[in-house]
Task: inverse folding
């Protein structure tokens, strides 16, 4: 009972992955911005990790100063357009909107934000430029939300900036890891181009920094190095049968989907393992790719899932079924995946315990593991004096982002262990200022 | 079922809703369509000397997402031949004998007035309205508001009209004057049967930011026009009240200005109007709005037990007093219903910046708190609060005392120093001026500013630490 037909062409793919936060037209933006109360010390600002002055930009939209609105947004967050679409606004700004307390629909802040920034991007409005050159150079590893945000901020402070990106496109997670119904590649890349044009930093694509020699070269040529490397591949489950065909990592699956669109192969019956937001994405995407049955299997109860409720609702809305209190014990099959052997679990004193003798096999022809990503420990071990904590996160000064190797600074998933685009963008901006303070002796 | 019909200075109408003299009453076609829709009467678009019009003619004031909260025009009186209009008036009256057709007129000489009054009487008009209000185009030629602003001229012209008029005559007044009752009294002295008000207010509704020209723009230029629409209702209500309360006016009033729904109409009626005229709303939404208006009025009258329109005419007038007759002992202060508060803190900023600094923020909650002793009961907080019944004004006096400014003046107890009893009997309470500084720092600073502030705070701390 698939709700979506398997897409076989680009238009069909786009139809299945229609944007859940579509672009507002001018009338919509006018009506919606009219509703903002202009709260004092607005809760939406406080709820935004990047602290955008939301009432200000909404009022600017309402008075026809859309360019000013875009400036307000970008001053706080260089991923202004992307964040408007991919942020979990339901639990951030919109979740904090005082209208919620009156049972009135909160202001659609995310869509208003994208409305303003999109216009600036399309008209290539000159809002920012590099600051006067200060003669110093910073290398940035990783062109994700953290790396690009740091690049923009450092350029505005007058630094020369080179970004090294292992992949062929910028923006990291935003283009490779976000569900396609949240934002399109074109939209992400347009914002990246806009920022590059505004700030004039260089990005070198297909340039992985992976060896000590390469790091040494950076250490010699640059005054500071920013690590915006994010996380690594999906963690292995260490279960028998995991190597079978069609047992894939969620991160890898989503990346393939983002790049290859309808050419991505999806099983007819898919089991997604995990209870986080990535699991919801992978399940929802499988359904939109035409899978007949999609089962979300999680080892604890529904209430204990890490995913936001609205993300689970989104998955349920496209026909995904939940299977709770089950733990996978084996990926069964003969060469390729034929099912997952589960054992039922119960939670006792917060601990997951298996129920002996309750094993069963749920047949499927594809398994997507959304069970967390590994840290990039290999690369980090090549940096002298760099400390990581027991969860593999880079240890850094909370305020400046400086690591235990004073030349290295970091932000984003590699430091926070995995969070939203908006967190990476906000942290990176602060870290860029930390770099500035360090290099100008202002610590 | 209440009776909506009226007999306005002898003009009978099935309900009090008339279309005002304006574009919607430009032709027999429109007037018949309006009557068919349910309007009780129509004041025909002003007939007079030949005029020509410009394009464009209208300008609008939009507020946030609302269109035409204010509206203006630079259109003149009817530019259709008098004979066409007379023939159409006759036809409308044949088809709608029980509806009110009032001819609006504007000419110059005594002879012209005599001729045109006879013409419209012959055509079958139920009444005449003298347009002494148009504030643009015609006034420069000595008509319209130019007449309305000169009570003696107005009186003279009314006298000319009354020499030949056999049907009721209404004088339409201009609000472009300091005291509306003066032309109203002049109309009475001249023998008019009724007055109608207000005509449009001289205005510029806006300026094109690219063309540097006022709206509406005619080939790159513009002119002041006549303002109307919902935005003018407060001005109209006040002027209707002024005329209704004045002992020397004593004429039936047709209320005009910002009437868009039944509530607006009832407000005009409660302040003394016994018919109401509508234009902008009909231009904006069409004749169909009459259904909402009559049904709302009927429901209101049923709920209140009013049988006829005349049961409610002027019902609010006894409660409209001069300031000096208001009870100085009556005291209210604001009360925040915490359960309803959504924490927008608009009341806090309004009181802090725009009123009396009588609201404070509290640790650990976004619900602000009223500082009772500082609250002067001004009402601003409850007006800005977006939640119904969240901020209410609670009565603080026990109702036993009553004292007005007039009584104090009579008793010789008028204050000789600034000491406002209403602020707790002390001198008016104001925080120390220095307390204003740095207040915004309590606020969540946006984006970049917040980072700078943090960096500054950190730098300050570092300096303090190093100096220890």
Result:
């Amino acid at each position: 009972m698939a709700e979506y037909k398997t897409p076989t062409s680009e238009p069909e793919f786009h139809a299945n992955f229609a944007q859940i936060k579509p672009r507002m037209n001018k009338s919509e933006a006018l009506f919606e911005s009219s509703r903002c109360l202009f709260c004092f010390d607005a809760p939406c600002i406080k709820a935004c990790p990047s602290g955008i002055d939301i009432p200000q930009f909404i009022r600017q939209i309402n008075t026809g100063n859309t360019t000013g609105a875009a400036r307000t947004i970008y001053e706080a967050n260089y991923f202004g357009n992307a964040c408007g679409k991919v942020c979990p606004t339901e639990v951030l700004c919109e979740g904090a909107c005082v209208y919620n307390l009156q049972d009135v629909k909160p202001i659609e802040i995310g869509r208003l934000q994208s409305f303003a920034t999109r216009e600036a991007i399309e008209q290539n409005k000159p809002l920012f430029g590099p600051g006067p050159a200060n003669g110093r150079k910073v290398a940035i590893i990783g062109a994700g939300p953290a790396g690009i945000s740091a690049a923009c901020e450092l350029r505005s402070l007058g630094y020369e900036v080179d970004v090294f990106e292992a992949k062929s496109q910028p923006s990291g997670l935003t283009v490779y890891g976000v569900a396609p119904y949240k934002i399109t590649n074109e939209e992400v890349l347009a914002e990246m181009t806009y920022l590059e044009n505004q700030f004039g930093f260089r990005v070198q694509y297909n340039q992985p920094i992976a060896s000590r020699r390469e790091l040494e070269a950076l250490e010699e040529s640059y005054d500071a190095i920013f690590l915006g490397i994010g996380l690594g591949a999906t963690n292995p489950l260490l279960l028998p049968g995991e190597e079978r065909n069609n047992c894939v990592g969620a991160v890898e699956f989503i990346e393939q989907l983002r790049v290859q669109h309808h050419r991505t192969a999806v099983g007819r019956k898919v089991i997604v393992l995990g209870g986080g937001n990535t699991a919801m994405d992978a399940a929802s995407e499988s359904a939109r790719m035409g899978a007949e049955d999609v089962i979300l299997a999680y080892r604890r109860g529904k209430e204990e899932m890490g995913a936001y409720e609205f993300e689970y609702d989104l998955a349920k809305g496209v026909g995904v079924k939940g299977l709770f209190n089950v733990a996978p014990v084996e990926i069964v099959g003969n060469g390729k995946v034929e099912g997952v052997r589960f054992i039922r679990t119960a939670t006792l004193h917060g601990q997951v315990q298996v129920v002996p003798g309750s094993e069963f096999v749920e047949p499927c022809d594809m398994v997507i593991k959304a069970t967390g990503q590994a840290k990039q420990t290999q690369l980090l071990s090549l940096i002298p004096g760099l400390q990581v904590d027991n969860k593999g996160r880079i240890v850094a000064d909370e305020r400046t982002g400086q690591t235990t190797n004073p030349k290295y600074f970091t932000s984003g998933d590699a430091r926070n262990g995995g969070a939203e685009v908006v967190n990476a963008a906000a942290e990176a901006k602060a870290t860029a200022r930390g770099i500035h303070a360090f290099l100008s002796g202002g610590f | 079922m209440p009776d909506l019909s009226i007999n306005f200075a002898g003009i009978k109408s099935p309900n009090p809703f008339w279309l005002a003299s304006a574009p919607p009453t430009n032709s027999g076609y429109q007037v018949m369509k309006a009557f068919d829709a349910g309007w009780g009467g129509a004041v025909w678009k002003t007939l007079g000397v030949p005029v020509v019009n410009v394009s464009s003619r209208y300008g609008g004031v939009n507020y946030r997402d609302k269109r035409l909260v204010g509206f203006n025009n630079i259109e003149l009186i009817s530019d259709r031949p008098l004979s066409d209009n007379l023939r159409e008036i006759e036809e409308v009256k044949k088809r709608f004998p029980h509806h009110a057709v009032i001819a609006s007129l504007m000419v110059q000489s005594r002879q012209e007035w005599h001729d045109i009054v006879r013409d419209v009487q012959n055509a079958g008009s139920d009444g005449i309205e003298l347009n002494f209000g148009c504030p643009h185009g015609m006034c420069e030629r000595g008509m319209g508001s130019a007449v309305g602003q000169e009570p003696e001229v107005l009186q003279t012209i009314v006298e000319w009209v009354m020499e030949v008029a056999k049907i009721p005559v209404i004088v339409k007044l201009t609000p472009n004057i300091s005291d509306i009752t003066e032309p109203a009294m002049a109309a009475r002295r001249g023998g008019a049967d009724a007055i109608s008000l207000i005509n449009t207010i001289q205005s510029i509704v806006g300026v094109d930011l690219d063309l540097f020209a006022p709206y509406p723009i005619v080939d790159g230029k513009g002119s002041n026009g006549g303002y109307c629409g919902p935005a003018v209702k407060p001005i109209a209500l006040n002027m209707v009240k002024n005329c209704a309360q004045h002992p020397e006016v004593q004429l039936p009033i047709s209320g005009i200005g910002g009437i868009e729904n039944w509530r607006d109409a009832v407000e005009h009626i409660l302040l003394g109007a016994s018919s109401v005229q509508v234009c902008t709303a009909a231009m904006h939404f069409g004749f169909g709005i009459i259904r909402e208006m009559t049904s709302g009025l009927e429901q209101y009258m049923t709920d209140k037990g009013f049988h006829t329109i005349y049961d409610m005419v002027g019902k609010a007038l006894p409660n409209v007093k001069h300031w000096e007759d208001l009870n100085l002992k009556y005291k209210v202060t604001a009360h925040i219903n915490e359960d309803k508060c959504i924490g927008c803190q608009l009341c806090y900023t309004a009181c802090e910046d725009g009123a009396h600094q009588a609201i404070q923020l509290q640790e650990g909650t976004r619900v602000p708190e009223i500082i009772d002793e500082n609250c002067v009961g001004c009402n601003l907080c409850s007006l800005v609060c977006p939640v119904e019944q969240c901020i209410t004004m609670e009565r603080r006096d026990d109702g036993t005392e009553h004292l007005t400014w007039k009584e104090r003046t009579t008793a010789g107890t008028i204050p000789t120093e600034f000491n406002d009893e209403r602020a707790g009997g002390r001198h008016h309470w104001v925080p120390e001026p220095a307390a204003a500084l740095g207040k915004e720092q309590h606020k969540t600073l946006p984006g970049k500013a917040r980072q700078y502030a943090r960096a500054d705070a950190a730098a300050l701390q570092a300096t303090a630490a190093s100096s220890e």
Summary: Chain A touches chain B through 34 residues (CB under 8 Å). The longest helix of chain A spans residues 421-439.
